[in-house]
Amino acid sequence: MKKHLPNAVTCLNLFSGCLALCHIFAGDLETGAYFVGLSAVFDFFDGLLARALHVSSPIGKDLDSLADVVSFGVVPGAFMFDLLRQSGAGLPGWLPYAGFIITVFSALRLAKFNNDTRQSDSFIGLPTPACTLVVASLPLILANDRFALSPFVLNPWVLLGLTLLLSGLLVAELPLFALKFKTFRWQDNQVRFVFLLLSVGLLAWLWAAAIPLIILLYVLLSVISPARPVYT
To answer: What is the pLDDT of residues 39-97, one digit of tens each?
Structure first.
């Protein structure tokens, strides 16, 4: 029975992603963003559970990627499509569809991950959940705009630029650390602990507006960290 538990959690990730899509289609992007957050939690815990139970299988790996391509591929594309559609009249009719560039590059990212032996203990390129959390934070920023960011967030060229930037980061040859703790000793996890502490502080201070900053912090700490992926 225990070998099926991680797959069950992966299915909850997929189900949450489907619910996020339903709310996006209904125009309720804020609720959709919360379901994305739930998908990210399930995505984190399915791997954690598999490692804790010492179970893995090719089916589990494929199921995880199939769930991720919905929750962290189709969903951010749908978010960006809707945001671009809201961003103003007089824009080219094709522009909102450019949001699905993220979907295409997310699928490429997941395919690369499944076939890249260098990414067992770290990542190369921005993980799809991190990309999706940036996009999903935008409706939350709009719904709770304490810092008057709405004109900036709903600028179509800002949205298009963010789409292209995130898409490029997904497939970039950029080594990034993973939040996988083999031990909890400070000397083995300095970058991870610093990242988590700063992230909690930013969330407490800025709420949803902190999420893009947290992902930027993640990239910057990875760049300055001496840790690099193991090439085999």
So the answer is: 999 999 998 888 888 888 888 889 999 999 999 999 999 999 999 999 976 788 899 99
Q: Which helix (H) or strand (E) holds 43?
A: helix 29-53
- Listed residue (17, 23, 22) closest to 41, CA to CA: 17
Interatomic CA distance for residues 27 and 79, integer angstroms: 10
Local structure of 173: helix, strand or coil? coil
| pTM metric for this prediction | 0.92
The residue among 121, 125, 133 whose CA lies nearest residue 108 is: 125
- Residue 96 neighbours by CB under 8 Å, 6+ apart: 81, 82, 84, 85
β-sheet bridge partners, residue 177: 122
Fold of 3-224: Four Helix Bundle (Hemerythrin (Met), subunit A) (1.20.120)
